[in-house]
Design goal:
Shape of chain B: elongated
Oligomer: heterodimer
Distance between the termini of chain A: 31 Å
Strand content of chain A: under 5%
Order of helices and strands of chain B: HHHHH
Number of domains of chain B: 2
Distance between the termini of chain B: 53 Å
Strand content of chain B: under 5%
Shape of chain A: globular
Helix content of chain B: over 70%
Number of helices of chain B: 5
Largest interface: A-B, 46 and 33 residues
CATH architecture of the largest domain in chain A: Orthogonal Bundle
CATH topology of the largest domain in chain A: Fumarate Reductase Iron-sulfur Protein, Chain B, domain 2
Number of domains of chain A: 3
């Protein structure tokens, strides 16, 4: 199936600029020089990830391709592309906004779900957002858990948050929609190898699996910018 | 199951997806205060108000600034 003219929305970027509050309003000046891609650590590991191509698709309005791509989720916000860009295009902010748009379309919830493990589950009760549980085995063996480090320094194992601080965190979380967002993420269930059927196992070799969902419909994403890379590609 | 993104979207054009995305962002960054949004914010404010006397007093200090917003949410009319 080939892309057609109707797959591009030329007006989209012009309409999007005022809503993006001036953060991504320089993308039309992109020279397509590729400096962003050249220095990108994520692109070094996964060659199919290409910020230059994603900026081009944003300006051309090829939204179907951007939003349904796996590549949109490979940036980890080091902002290297922004710092080397000769036209000062804030690409990380664009990634941030379009991940929200992709989630609105039903893509990428499985990636956000991964972060749930690092968040403190009962942050509304404790007031701590990042879990004190250290999961890197090397760190645990050599230095120990965060709570152990704190205790050695003469601090309580967990940071104590004042009652007023707790009340503020609760209000901010409710007002900003964080509470309902965390509930939504809780509704996403990931497929694992024990439960998938033959057809899914076959697909798994070439494409990422769609997620089984609770309340949220999570769709299958595609490598829209080329074949997935890997260490072998990076070293070649 | 679709094999690529064009198949996944079926007959939908990028313009359709663009319109949907724009509507999503408009709603997300909107400063309008519809009743639905106000009702979502209420539990947080009630929690804050009931936490202690100190927080309750703090919240009431903001009441004059909040009143036009609440009025707009309940009546649906924006004050000039």
């Amino acid at each position: 199936m080939l892309e057609q003219v109707k797959d591009w929305d030329d007006d989209f970027y012009e309409k999007f600029k005022p809503i993006a509050m001036g953060f991504v309003n320089e993308a039309e000046k992109c020279l397509q020089c590729g400096k962003c891609t050249g220095q990108c650590p994520a692109a070094a590991v996964t060659p199919s990830y290409n910020p230059r191509k994603i900026i081009r698709d944003l300006v051309n309005g090829n939204l179907k391709r951007v939003l349904s791509s796996v590549e949109l989720w490979q940036c980890f916000f080091c902002s290297g592309c922004f710092s080397v860009c000769p036209m000062d295009i804030n690409f990380p902010f664009f990634v941030f906004m379009f991940r929200l748009a992709a989630m609105n379309e039903g893509y990428g919830w499985e990636d956000v779900k991964q972060l749930e493990g690092y968040a403190e589950k009962d942050y509304l009760r404790k007031g701590i957002t990042v879990s004190t549980f250290e999961r890197n085995p090397e760190v645990v063996e050599t230095i120990g858990d965060i709570s152990k480090i704190r205790m050695e320094a003469g601090l309580p194992p967990e940071r104590k948050v004042s009652d007023r601080g707790l009340a503020e965190i609760n209000m901010i979380s409710d007002l900003s929609g964080m509470t309902s967002f965390m509930k939504k993420i809780g509704g996403v269930e990931l497929l694992d190898c024990k439960t998938c059927n033959d057809e899914q196992a076959k697909r798994c070799k070439t494409k990422p699996l769609p997620s089984k969902v609770g309340k949220i419909k999570t769709k299958l994403r595609f490598y829209n910018y080329g074949e997935p890379g890997g260490k072998a590609h990076a070293e070649a | 199951m679709a094999d690529n993104f064009l198949e996944a979207y079926g007959k939908e054009t990028s313009r359709d997806v663009g319109t949907r995305t724009m509507n999503y962002f408009r709603e997300l960054f909107s400063l309008e205060m519809p009743l639905g949004r106000m009702m979502k914010m209420m539990p947080g404010m009630i929690k804050f108000a009931t936490a202690s006397k100190d927080t309750r007093e703090d919240l009431f200090k903001f009441m004059p600034q909040m009143m036009p917003m609440m009025k707009q949410a309940f009546t649906g009319k924006k004050e000039e």
